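Reopening this one. Same input as before:
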Amino acid sequence: MAKGNGTREDPWQLTTPSGTSNYEMYRDESLDPPALVCTVGSTQLRYQLRCIEDLHQMLKERGDWVPLGSADEQKPAADGTVEAWGRSTGNPVGGWYGLKKGLRGRFGMYVPPLMEALGLAEVEHNPRNNRMRAI
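Same output, byte for byte:
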């Protein structure tokens, strides 16, 4: 379970699936649209807050392990991965869940550990090529 309660004052303290980096996330419902704010070092990324429920629903529908496939915004995401779904025109928001142009990628890196901490998903923690599935 992640430390923190997901507020700006007490953000969730998370670790990437491979265990190589620590970062923080919190909910900010005052933003338009409401967002998950992710701070990695001095970099801040934002994802639409609804991504938690939407990703959980997609994982439940798939019913099996889904590769994470994390990639920067400027790089293509591998087909069939969480990263590809997070930017697909076929997802519930019709495109990117990432909100800051130039920093919209890495959805498959930073959102899955939060899903695991919230008890919504199981995430692998290998050095590379991790997957997740709904609980």
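So the earlier flakiness isn't reproducible anymore. For the record, The chain has three helices and seven strands.
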